[in-house]
Amino acid sequence: MSENEEQQHSEVTSPTMAETTEESSPEQKHSQDLDPSIAKKFPTMSIKSITIWPPTQRTRDAVINRLIETLSAPSILSKRYGSLSHDDASSAARAIEEEAFATASASETVSRSELSIDDDGIEILQIYSKEISKRMLETVKAKAAAAAAPPVAAAAPGTSEDVSPGESETS
């Protein structure tokens, strides 16, 4: 290919730097600030802010599945407090996640109104995570306490459980 043909080919396939700069969007101008080799390969690449809150439904479902596994499978938690059946763990996990999501979402509106800058959601995600942990622990502790409590027997009318054998109720 002659030099003239190469020049015509390059003009057709890629604009010159001057043309790119004049017609660039803010994202394209930002990509020119990147490493020149990257900017050449991806001239229209834009760097966008990534937010992590609210989580996608897929992420929330993964959290629920992990909670079910944690509550029903052998673990350090189950050694101390016992494990739940798969059905009980499933319903508890859904309730835990929904309550934690609602709490974090409510604090999101408060946090965003207090902050003057845009937040990527990391603080809200931390609240969500802490709420899940707190509620999971409350759930297994309540289950362990219910299992450890002696069954309450209903006393028959006119009898007293405080009476020792051989003593009469009327002293």
Automatic annotation (TrEMBL):
<dbReference type="InterPro" id="IPR038214">
    <property type="entry name" value="WPP_sf"/>
</dbReference>
<keyword id="KW-0539">Nucleus</keyword>
<dbReference type="InterPro" id="IPR044692">
    <property type="entry name" value="WPP1/2/3"/>
</dbReference>
<keyword id="KW-0963">Cytoplasm</keyword>
<feature type="region of interest" description="Disordered">
    <location>
        <begin position="1"/>
        <end position="42"/>
    </location>
</feature>
<feature type="compositionally biased region" description="Polar residues">
    <location>
        <begin position="10"/>
        <end position="19"/>
    </location>
</feature>
<feature type="compositionally biased region" description="Low complexity">
    <location>
        <begin position="148"/>
        <end position="157"/>
    </location>
</feature>
<dbReference type="Pfam" id="PF13943">
    <property type="entry name" value="WPP"/>
</dbReference>
<feature type="region of interest" description="Disordered">
    <location>
        <begin position="148"/>
        <end position="171"/>
    </location>
</feature>
<protein>
    <recommendedName>
        <fullName>WPP domain-containing protein</fullName>
    </recommendedName>
</protein>
<dbReference type="GO" id="GO:0005634">
    <property type="term" value="C:nucleus"/>
</dbReference>
<dbReference type="InterPro" id="IPR025265">
    <property type="entry name" value="WPP_dom"/>
</dbReference>
<dbReference type="GO" id="GO:0000278">
    <property type="term" value="P:mitotic cell cycle"/>
</dbReference>
<dbReference type="GO" id="GO:0048527">
    <property type="term" value="P:lateral root development"/>
</dbReference>
<feature type="domain" description="WPP">
    <location>
        <begin position="49"/>
        <end position="148"/>
    </location>
</feature>
<dbReference type="GO" id="GO:0005737">
    <property type="term" value="C:cytoplasm"/>
</dbReference>
